[in-house]
Amino acid sequence: MRYSTKLIGTTRLAGAALVLTMAAACGSPTSMANAPASGTETAPPSGSAGTSTSVPPPGKPQFDPPQGAQRVPDNRVDGAALPKTFPKEVYSDNGGTVLVVRAEEGGCGHALGEAVEQSAQKVVVDLSETKAQTGQMCTMDLRHPVISVALGAPLGERTVVLKQSAPR
């Protein structure tokens, strides 16, 4: 009886050591140092060195407004068409030719924004989200990234009207 208990304990210890060794080898900094990049890192666009703009690249939502972006005063942002809980935060950047808008996305969707109307009095920004692929499992989280929207002319004193359309 004593022998079998020692044998079982030794087997468990050896198995645990094997599992720990494999786990350490898979996640060790040494094994990761030479691993190929995951593809999520992006290099700055060529020719961007020395430019003064801090606009987030299109299609790459961030969670903080770009450094140097100016908040558009709340009295010049009309978010009445958005759901009550939707953020109504807008910044101008790049001399007012780019709006940086706080959007909403969740699960597998990604926020989209487009200036659908630009007049002397207002700029209408349509906010939507990409549709999740059918059959794809998605988390139920809610995110509020900032996205950039190009304008044809600087914002100036125009009002920004935010609206939301169905997922695309």
Automatic annotation (TrEMBL):
<feature type="signal peptide">
    <location>
        <begin position="1"/>
        <end position="33"/>
    </location>
</feature>
<feature type="compositionally biased region" description="Polar residues">
    <location>
        <begin position="31"/>
        <end position="54"/>
    </location>
</feature>
<feature type="region of interest" description="Disordered">
    <location>
        <begin position="31"/>
        <end position="88"/>
    </location>
</feature>
<keyword id="KW-0732">Signal</keyword>
<protein>
    <recommendedName>
        <fullName>Lipoprotein</fullName>
    </recommendedName>
</protein>
<feature type="compositionally biased region" description="Pro residues">
    <location>
        <begin position="55"/>
        <end position="64"/>
    </location>
</feature>
